[in-house]
Design brief:
Blueprint (H helix, E strand, L loop, with lengths): L5 E5 L1 H5 L3 H13 L17 E2 L9 E4 L9 H13 L5 H14 L26 E5 L1 H14 L7 H7 L10 H21 L2 E5 L2
Antiparallel strand pairs: 1-3, 1-5, 2-3, 4-5
């Protein structure tokens, strides 16, 4: 099995009510709780990108669904790889803003060393923070949401360069519309989290 990812937006103040070593466990416990209704497999399928929980923590987090990824991180990884092939052929403004966006979320960068978690909020002990793939504070979310807003109108202008330098028909995120669709999903995550003043968390189980 490959790496999975579940992307959530969460109230940083709610998580901050407990100490850093307890915060990821608090989010996981709230997510797994039966009261949320998220695990009611007899319920009608969710329509749209968001799963909004029920129960006592309903106002504290939500889960975003990226369509056609089946919860796998592979699509996000390959979006980063397609950008790496494409970025040298993008205009300087598009390259600057998409670099900032993707380095902040899913792309390891040209040197493979980008970090996608803000230090200090969750525990830095890997035994406690296992599976934490993305953790962006409300301040960082606002920065990334701004990068997305600047990037969004420039995406259409990348089609030709993508087709020539990054396309791989039949492969993961090998078509331009799939690449753009994944970025738009992250844009919806950032926009909603920014609107609420929340953070973004991506976890692997």
């Amino acid at each position: 099995m490959g790496l999975d990812i579940t992307v959530m937006i969460a109230d940083w103040e709610w998580l901050g009510d407990v100490s850093p070593p307890e915060r990821l466990a608090r989010l996981r416990d709230a997510w797994y709780a039966d009261e949320t209704g998220l695990w009611d497999f007899d319920a009608p399928p969710v329509s749209g990108d968001w799963q909004w929980p029920q129960g006592p923590d309903a106002a504290s987090f939500a889960v975003h669904d990226f369509p056609h990824t089946a919860g796998s991180f592979k699509a996000h990884f390959w979006a980063g790889q397609r950008w790496e092939c494409l970025r040298g052929h993008a205009g300087p403004e598009a390259r600057t803003d998409l670099d900032a966006l993707l380095l902040g979320l899913i792309w390891d960068g040209p040197d493979g060393e980008a970090q996608h978690t803000d230090p200090g909020f969750f525990s830095d002990d890997p035994k406690i923070s296992y599976g934490l793939l993305v953790a962006r504070s409300p301040d960082r979310v606002r920065e990334l949401a701004s990068a997305w807003e600047r990037s969004r109108p420039r995406l259409g202008g990348l089609r030709e360069a993508f087709t020539e330098h990054a396309a791989a028909p039949g492969a993961r995120v090998g078509e331009f519309h799939v690449f753009v669709g994944l970025l738009e999903g992250w844009g919806r995550v950032l926009d909603e989290a920014s609107r609420r003043g929340w953070g973004v968390v991506g976890v692997s189980e």
